[in-house]
Amino acid sequence: MESLLSPSITYLAEAATPGDFAAARIQMALSLGWHIIIASFGVAMPAITLFMEWRGHRTGDVHYRLLARRWARAMGVLFAVGAVSGTVLSFEMGLLWPGLMGTYGQVIGLPFTLEGFAFFIEAIFLGIYLYGWDRLSARAHMWSAVPVLIAGIVGTFCVVSANAWMNQPRGFDLVDGRITGVDPLGAMFNPATGPQSVHMMVAAFMVTGFCMAAVYAVGMLRGRTDRYHRLGFLVPFTVAAVMAPVQVGVGDWAAHHVATHQPVKLAAMEGLYETQRGAPLHLGGVAIDGELRYAIEIPNALSLLAHWDPNAEIAGLNTVPADQRPPVNVVHWSFQLMVGAGFAMLAVAAAFAFIWRWRRGWLTNRWFLRAAALCGPAAVLALEAGWTTTEVGRQPWVVYGVLRTHDAVNTAPGLRTGLVVVLVVYTLLTVATVYVLRRLARDKPVPVAPRESDVETFPVP
Amino acid sequence: MTSADALLGVLFAALTAYALFGGADFGAGFWDLFAGGARTGMRQRKLIEHAIGPIWEANHVWLIFAMVLLWTAFPAVFAGVAATMYIPLTCAALGIIGRGAGFAFRKTSGTLGRQRIFGALFAFSSVVTPFFLGAVAGGIASGRVPPWTAGRGNLLTSWWNPTSVATGALAVAVCAYLAAVFLIFDARREAPDLVPRLRRRALWAGAGTGVLAVAGLVVVELDAGWLADRLWRPVPAALVVVSALAGLASIGLLAAGRYAAVRVTGGLAVAAVLWGWAAAQYPYLLPPATTVSGMAATPAVMRATLWAVLAGAVILVPSLWWLFRLFQMPLRDPSHRAAGGDR
Ligand code: HDD
Ligand code: HEM
Ligand code: HEM
């Protein structure tokens, strides 16, 4: 049996290389970055769909109900790929980072256990909601979506608290590299949990709302301005637009938190090398040889934003040795992208409010619709950039100040091969998901469950 | 009993639930693969879709739940298994992607061509994934995985060895068998004319599983002496006998057309094997030297997790019950909704 495999045996006998370490990080980032987009839909889409169904029930307007049906079908697809991509993440936590899980798995175990139950509830009631359309009364059917919403929120809180713990490790005693005592609640409710989880939940609603609205904005740009498309645009867009100003406030809270608890990350986000009072805010710029060049400086702004005091002292990257600094360019630019995208979306949301209040006729204005459609990709960009800021800004630590990423990685050789395989699989998965969703948007609605009565009798615009 | 033992019990209960429910879903994919040509097999595929559509995601969470419990309660065991079993677990994870995505995509595809591609993906990964998961179990049982604290085991022989191949094959057969048994029950309501065909398949799958189980015992005897010795102690041996009896009874019940009862005996046969394995290993988590108490997380973690499990179960059990019940009931009369003023 083994002789069959001898070529691969010699390959596997090589030791793990720096290339494997890089491969593990890329693989983790890729699969997380993929999952988080779908997961955002998992959190927010049931709420928006339920609202549509409820309006349809109350008003009897067939367009609401048709939209709810169509979104439910998309949700079925998104939920399935969300579930499988999340499962892969759970595997990867061990496959790629045994050094993290082997020691600290127990510290972050409680939120993950609770999250497990949240997944159960989510999956069970989503099954009921999607397939029970003709098995339940309208009222019971709508109620069956409520546990999905709650579980989505609870689940997000739990995972993000695990991630927050990596930023602010609390609730354990470490003696000679061994955990001797754990306070699971202390670990779960660490200082970073609050800002991070709220920021993430609001982000989920922005991503989902803007992306859903973008589909109908494009439809309207192509001349389909009937009531069906208007509703499909207005409801999700309103949800996301309301969240846009909230998110800027929450982001500010997150930034204050980072300034107090993770000064090195803040310094990298701002490209600040020297500790100083009255620190300026840098817009743009590139870090070369230990300084940020070509940036626009706004004097004292950083001190003001971070501590509400224009002369507050801000720690620079020089407070830690070079081998404990995160890669400045990545962190600085991803932070700028997130904030830039956030303010751009805020502007479109403000325009929307103006139009809604004073100029309804402009709703079909091409420039407004173009900007509104762009909010979808912009929200996704902000989401990814935000996570890149958080995760790369924590480097070289996987658990801030406690465990280096390099010491957590699986020592198995061949992680590079794994990355290539995963890349191929995720590419195919992306192509297939986009393809199926596009077909869904175009095809006549097909019932989710066999013999669903009302979809078939609905008129399709 | 310590809290570590209690959590181990919960963990194994979750694994059993995954083997039974998740296993049946994988097996449904197995039968999908062998349902025949795109047109002739259409009805059987529809039945499969109908049976597992609403429930597969919930069934699938058992695996995640078991994994999370493992890393919470026995972190070094989780890390050790993951580090050593890097290859089969990666393959299983990719198989899970293919299966879930393939199934969902096929369901929403309108044309035959698209259904065929996604269906093939769903079916193929349904067969491959249980093999890898079974092989991992075999590698653990035969003492080839050290805990994380003791370094990494062999990346290849830990799962590509006689015991692993036997348990991998057995896992595939068990899934097929469970699915056939469960599907007959659904077919009786949804597509009665498929019942004889499914019954034949269930009988074959049952016989095949029995043969593979016996072969597996022989392989364990030859390849994994440590496990073989412990398998013949009273408790594990009794469980193996229970499994064999339940398996034989299932074949009788199938032949007699008692499809509700056979769900119970079929499930029991599978569960008893799992618990027999657990009993043989106990108190060793990773044979031959790593014990439950040596690897357990700190007591505070165990307590918190047990409370979480208890509280979660209070919500979970009635929800699951409702889910399964709802989709075993006949459809409501569609006109009812119109009468209820829903339009
Ligand atoms: C739609 C998405 C979105 C938008 C518009 C914004 N963010 Fe954000 N941001 C995220 C989505 C996000 C995120 C992806 O959800 C992150 C990653 C980790 C986290 O908790 O939230 C994040 C992280 C994150 C962090 C790092 C937290 C940490 O590492 O602990 C800071 C300081 C900010 N954000 C600040 C802001 C500010 C000042 C914004 C003002 C415009 C802003 N964000 C808009
Ligand atoms: C809340 C759940 C999350 C957890 C528990 C988590 C955990 C991890 C772990 C263990 C690593 C590897 C170690 C390291 O490089 O520090 C990592 C890296 C990374 N993650 Fe996260 N992560 C989460 C969310 C996300 C999301 C949603 C993204 C989206 C883009 C993301 C982006 C990244 C990136 C870019 C890296 C690589 C950092 C680097 O190596 O430079 N993470 N994460
Ligand atoms: C900020 C980060 C994350 C958020 C907000 C999030 C949220 C969600 C949500 C809402 C779902 C269910 C809905 C859907 O499938 O679309 C989901 C699925 C899942 N996630 Fe994540 N997730 C995050 C990161 C992670 C990480 C780091 C892991 C693993 C370590 C993980 C593991 C899972 C698993 C296993 C599932 C599947 C559950 C099922 O079968 O239903 N997630 N996630």
What can you see in these coordinates?
The complex is a heterodimer of chains A (about 450) and B (about 350). Chain A has helices at about 5-15, 20-60, 60-95, 100-105, 110-130, 140-145, 145-165, 185-190, 195-220, 225-260, 265-270, 300-305, 330-360, 365-395, 405-410, 415-440, 455, and strands at about 170-175, 180, 275, 280-285, 285-290, 290-295, 295-300, 315, 395-400, 405. Chain A is mainly alpha-helical. In chain A, helix 2 packs across helix 14, helix 5 packs antiparallel against helix 7 (about 145-165) and helix 7 packs across helix 9 (about 195-220). Chain A has a two-stranded antiparallel sheet. A two-stranded antiparallel ribbon of chain A has the order 3-8. The model of chain A is unreliable at about 1-15 and about 445-460 (pLDDT under 50). With about 350 residues, chain B is mainly α. Chain B has helices at about 5-35, 40-50, 55-75, 75-85, 85-110, 110-140, 160-190, 195-225, 225-230, 235-255, 260-280, 290-295, 300-325, 335-340; strands at about 285, 290. A two-stranded antiparallel sheet of chain B has the order 1-2. In chain B, strand 1 (about 285) and strand 2 form a beta hairpin. Chain B is globular. Chain B starts with a helix and ends with a helix. The model of chain B is unreliable at about 335-343 (pLDDT under 50). At the A-B interface, helix 1, helix 3, helix 4, helix 5 and strand 2 of A face helix 3, helix 4, helix 5 and helix 13 of B. Bound molecules: CIS-heme D hydroxychlorin gamma-spirolactone and protoporphyrin IX containing FE (2 copies). One protoporphyrin IX containing FE sits at the interface of chains A and B.
Number of helices of chain B: 14
Which bin fits the share of residues in helices of chain B? over 70%
Gyration radius from CA atoms of chain A, angstroms: 24 Å
Q: What does the oligomeric state look like here?
A: heterodimer
> What's the order of the H and E elements of chain A?
HHHHHHHEEHHHHEEEEEHEHHEEHHH
Uncertain runs of chain B are 333-343
Please give the most extensive interface between any two protein chains, plus how many residues each contributes: A-B, 92 and 82 residues
Mean of residue pLDDT values of chain B: 85
Structural class of chain B: mainly alpha
- State the separation between the terminal residues of chain B, measured CA to CA: 58 Å
**Per DSSP, what share of the residues of chain B sits in E-state strands of 2 or more residues?**
under 5%
The neighbouring-strand order within the major sheet of chain B is: 1-2
